[in-house]
Amino acid sequence: MAEYIHCVGERLLVDPTTRQLGGNNGTDVIPLMVVPLMLDPMDFRTMMCNISVPIRLLVLVQNGREAMLSLYLQELERVYGWSGRLVVSRHPENIGYSAAVNIGLRL
Length: 107
Prior knowledge:
Layout lengths: L1 H11 L1 E2 L4 E2 L11 E5 L4 H9 L7 E6 L3 H14 L5 E6 L5 H10 L1
Parallel strand pairs: 3-4, 4-5
Antiparallel strand pairs: 1-2
Helix pairs in contact: 1-2
């Protein structure tokens, strides 16, 4: 899990050890990324480790209860939540993809 946690930090330009924030105001930055998550976080982990540009604000919407996903999101919040560059919204029931994206856009 540590490798994937690290990938998220690289995309957010956040160093959890020094609590340093990298500059994310350039034109080669994803301004907002909303990711609805439903089941196993493996696809999300793979995506985060393969994105090659920084993300200004990452909004993760947990769409339903899944134990492994919940643990992963808790760890992400623990490590990066202080930065203001990661927001996690949890929904115990699957509210659907469109509703999850809309919630993410409103945060």
